[in-house]
Amino acid sequence: MKRTEILVSGFGGQGVVRLGQIFSTAAVYQGLYATMLISHGTETRGGYVRSQIVISGEPIDSPVVEQPDFFCAMSKSAYTKFNHLVKQGRIIFDPGYVEPDPQVLVPHDSLAARDIAVKELGRDIFANIIFLGVLGKHFQAVISKENFLKALKLRVPKFTEDNIKAFQLGYDLR
After folding, report:
1. How far apart are the first and last CA of the chain?
2. CB 72 within 8 A of CB 9
3. Which of 110, 118, 117 lies closest to 94 in space, CA to CA?
4. Rounded distance, CA 3 to CA 14, Å?
5. Phi, psi of 46 (to 5 degrees)
6. Closest to 14 measured CA to CA, from 51, 68, 66
7. Could you give phi then psi for residue 40, rounded to 5 degrees?
């Protein structure tokens, strides 16, 4: 598998780091090389957060995401700050937070993750796992659904059934 870069960004409290941890763990379970870098502002909840995930079939020389194949924009500020990095990739955005810029000429997929989480699970905290499910579907030829679920259970031992349902909701959307 060639080097693939995933950028996930939003504000603190949205589960950006947890999504990155689960995704990279699933890649390792699949036998791939994976790295994840996180960066965030000084605030924990409400501040800026970013996960940079790189997966590959070969050792990874740099963990920095420079041209994401996938960019999950979970907030307007994240979209504004990072959309220019996506040259040939795809942007997945939550329309409850992001209004796409028509001048950004890469494919955009709308994912109302927060609304789906509230409607189906009663809480917006599951929106990140819905994003994970959508990514899981995009990567189904590379990382098995079983490995995503195994990583999810390891990384988020609470609310297991709701998280599995959230993953499945996202997985079934694409």
Report:
1. 22
2. yes
3. 110
4. 26
5. 100, -20
6. 51
7. -160, 160
The token pair that represents 76 in the structure block: 């307007």
- Per the structure, the count of domains in the chain is 1
The CATH number of residue 101's host domain is: 3.40.920.10
CA-CA distance, 162 to 129, in Å (whole number)?
10
Please provide residue 23's backbone torsions phi and psi, each rounded to the nearest 5 degrees.
Answer: -60, -50
Helix (H, G, I), strand (E, B) or coil at 158: coil
Q: Among 69-73, 148-152, 153-157, which stretch is predicted with the lowest mean pLDDT?
A: 153-157
Chain segment 26-58, per-residue pLDDT in tens: 999 999 999 999 987 665 556 679 999 999 999
Domain of residue 34 covers 4-173
Q: Can you spell out the DSSP letters for 129-173?
A: HHHHHHHHHHTTTTS-HHHHHHHHHHH--SSHHHHHHHHHHHHHH
Dihedral of CA atoms 13, 14, 16, 18 in degrees, nearest 10, equals 70
Rounded distance between C-alpha atoms, residue 138 and residue 153, angstroms:
20
The answer to whether 168 touches 140, Cβ cutoff 8 Å, is no
> What's the pLDDT score for residue 40?
77
